[in-house]
Amino acid sequence: MSVPQAEATTGSAGRIPAGAARVDRDAALVEGLRKGDPTATELLLDTYGDRVYRLAIRITGNEQDAEEVVQDALWTAARKIGMFKGESAFGSWVYRITANTAYQKLRGRQSRKHEVPWDGSPACVRR
Prior knowledge:
Elements: H1 27-35, H2 38-60, H3 63-79, H4 90-113
Helix pairs in contact: 1-2, 2-3, 2-4, 3-4
């Protein structure tokens, strides 16, 4: 699946002029995900897998957690593609999902630190 590249006319400072339409380079990917095209999910992984992994590892600091975050985040992006409004770049949306998933993983890790085991061990039962 080829992704069309947008050509924009730039001003003297190399900026896109005000009022110019912004075209998301991932438009074909988004459309494929919306249609349920199985190659689109592969393209999502190929396009964003490494990038979201780097973000996840920076947040979690743990390779295993980062791999779980990537899997969960990309699955969420594919599953909730109908919620993508196109008001921002698709990549920004995927990164936000990844960051939220990573922070959720950290919160889960923190709450597990404070759990008290209920296995009846002598440290838990006094009598």
